Automatic annotation (TrEMBL):
Cross-referenced InterPro entries: 4pyrrol_Mease, 4pyrrol_Methylase_sf, 4pyrrole_Mease_sub1, 4pyrrole_Mease_sub2, CobA/CysG_C, NAD(P)-bd_dom_sf, Siro_Cobalamin_biosynth, Sirohaem_synt_dimer_dom_sf
Official protein name in the record: Uroporphyrinogen-III C-methyltransferase
Pathway of action: Cofactor biosynthesis; adenosylcobalamin biosynthesis; precorrin-2 from uroporphyrinogen III: step 1/1; Porphyrin-containing compound metabolism; siroheme biosynthesis; sirohydrochlorin from precorrin-2: step 1/1; Porphyrin-containing compound metabolism; siroheme biosynthesis; precorrin-2 from uroporphyrinogen III: step 1/1
A GO term, aspect molecular function: sirohydrochlorin ferrochelatase activity
PANTHER family per record: S-ADENOSYL-L-METHIONINE-DEPENDENT UROPORPHYRINOGEN III METHYLTRANSFERASE, CHLOROPLASTIC (PTHR45790:SF3), SIROHEME SYNTHASE-RELATED (PTHR45790)
Membrane among keywords: no
Annotated Gene3D superfamilies: Cobalt-precorrin-4 Transmethylase, Domain 1, Methyltransferase, Cobalt-precorrin-4 Transmethylase, Domain 2, NAD(P)-binding Rossmann-like Domain, Sirohaem synthase, dimerisation domain, Siroheme synthase, domain 2
Residues in Tetrapyrrole methylase domain copies: 220-432
Database matches in NCBIfam families: cobA_cysG_Cterm (TIGR01469), cysG_Nterm (TIGR01470), PRK06136.1 (NF004790), PRK10637.1 (NF007922)
PROSITE patterns tied to this protein: SUMT_1, SUMT_2
Keywords: Cobalamin biosynthesis, Lyase, Methyltransferase, Multifunctional enzyme, NAD, Oxidoreductase, Porphyrin biosynthesis, S-adenosyl-L-methionine, Transferase
Protein family membership: Belongs to the precorrin methyltransferase family.
């Protein structure tokens, strides 16, 4: 270990910064966040520094003197020429004051780490002054893993520390806290439901704690949207949950690239449903989620796109709630918005649409989708049809029969945001031909409305030309 990490309580301690420019301002921000009694001394302060710090810290506009350094617990030297910095470093050393000289690790007693600040919880990363940029990169990686509410969780636990001490035997306490941090109450705090968490915590503390009860565990289920396919479109929260999960139940539309981001030893269960081939019935998926949670596991139910948009996430949430399992929902980028971005087509472009409607083209068995065609045809908005490829001809026919013009622009986006993405575009009257000639099999969305003319895609003429060139 090059340098020993210690988290110092600087509240009210005297810290001095010699310097009056941008480097001094950056260090001042850090020291203010740590509640230090901060003074800055320099012959001249920059306008930016004065604007930000005036009234918050002691600003002494003159040359520093030895007595300034001697009065400090910590000293920073910033925006100062090397020879001058060395002179003050010498003074600091004689006075026994710990010193940091910006960008001069050789002169430093301590370096400032890259910091992840979650209130009471702080993580600091040091490269011993050797590679600050690497430190910053690591910080970004770790930031993504740590929930923003981690500080609230530490505060929450702190509020119950004494009560737990008074009610739970010393030998059971560690196990109690381990179960707490892995369990549903902590998940509730992290999900922002502090009120519910307090109620659950009081109930937990007030019930008798026998050996058996300490063993009893309840897991949690997170219903999580995986987005349309590109792993970069996962939310930071989804990524964090994937890296904490014990078990992941996923659909067909969740790509391997996304699954590869999960914790390596997480169990993966495929419960996907290909169209007309319901490999695992919905009730069985719900029963599995409940059973796994009752085993005390952290379960992620990972669904393509957004779990609440044609994803049956609502049914799963109802079933979990009915069974008394703590369940939380993390949204995802739905196919409509993901595909629109992939095709560079704004779904509500101001010049041509003021509204957007998402519908499903899927119906039970071979039946036609039971949609209110006259309402949909009358709406002068953008219509996005999910699961509409096999019924595309019927959908176009019904819309035209109910008054939507055959010349209305359409775009079909298959595997949007993935490497094998395909986009074709044309008119509503030729939708079936576009799908046939474009070799569209799905998953795909049909976008019907003026905005579709703006999609980056191939027309029937482009496809014909391509075919001729290949032949
Ligand atoms: C059962 S729905 C699930 C929708 C999902 N919950 C969402 O919010 O995107 C499956 C349909 O979503 C659409 N879909 C999902 N991912 C897609 C993608 N990457 N590109 C195009 N369409 C997609 C297709 O219409 C597919 O048939």
């Amino acid at each position: 270990m090059k340098a020993f990490p210690a988290h110092i309580d600087l509240k009210g301690r005297s810290v001095l910064i010699i310097g009056g420019g941008a480097e001094a301002l950056a260090k001042a921000r850090l020291m203010l966040a740590a509640d230090a009694a901060l003074s800055l001394v320099a012959p001249k302060f920059s306008a930016d520094l004065l604007a930000e710090l005036k009234g918050k810290v002691r600003l002494i506009e003159r040359d520093p003197v030895v007595a300034d350094v001697e009065a400090a617990a910590l000293l920073f030297i910033a925006d100062t020429q090397e020879a001058e910095a060395r002179r003050w470093a010498e003074v600091a050393r004689m006075a026994g004051v710990l010193l940091n000289v910006v960008d001069q690790p050789a002169l430093c007693d301590f370096t400032t780490p890259s910091i992840i600040d979650r209130g009471r919880v702080t993580v600091s990363i040091s490269t011993g002054g050797a590679a600050p940029v690497l430190g910053k990169k690591l910080r970004a990686d770790i930031e993504a893993l740590l929930p923003p509410q981690l500080g609230s969780l530490a505060d929450f636990a702190d509020r119950y520390r004494e009560t737990v001490k008074a009610t739970i035997a010393r030998e059971d306490r560690r196990r109690f806290w381990e179960a707490f941090f892995d369990g549903p109450i902590a998940a509730q705090v992290l999900a922002g439901d502090e009120k519910g968490a307090h109620e659950a915590m009081l109930a937990l503390i007030n019930r008798p704690h026998t050996e058996e009860m300490a063993e009893e565990k309840t897991g949690t289920v997170h219903i999580v949207g995986a987005g349309p396919g590109d792993p970069d479109l996962l939310t930071i929260k989804a990524l964090r949950l994937l890296q904490r999960a014990d078990v992941i139940l996923h659909d067909r539309l969740v790509s391997d690239d996304i699954l590869s981001l999960a914790r390596r030893d997480a169990e993966r269960l495929y419960v996907g449903k290909a169209k007309s081939n319901h490999s695992v019935p919905q009730e069985e998926i719900e029963a599995r989620l409940i059973a796994l949670a009752r085993e005390g596991k952290t379960v992620v139910r990972l669904k393509g796109g957004d779990p609440f948009v044609f994803g049956r996430g609502g049914e799963e949430l109802d079933a979990l709630r009915k069974a008394g399992i703590p369940a939380f929902v993390t949204p995802g980028v739905t196919a409509a918005t993901g595909c629109a971005a992939a095709a560079n087509m704004a779904l509500t472009h101001r010049d041509c649409a003021q509204a957007v409607t998402f519908v499903t083209g899927h119906a039970k068995g071979e039946a036609d989708p039971a949609l209110d065609w006259s309402a949909l045809a009358a709406l002068k908005n953008t219509l996005v049809v999910y699961m509409g490829v096999t019924k595309a001809e019927t959908i176009a026919g019904k819309l035209i029969a109910h008054g939507r013009g055959a010349e209305t622009p359409v775009a079909v986006i298959e595997n949007g945001t993935r490497e094998n993405q395909k986009i074709v575009k044309g008119a509503l009257g030729e939708l079936a031909a576009l799908i046939e000639t474009g070799g569209i099999k799905g998953p795909a969305v049909l976008v019907i409305g003026e905005v579709a003319a703006r999609a980056d895609g191939e027309t029937l003429a482009d496809l014909a030309l391509k075919e001729r060139l290949v032949a």
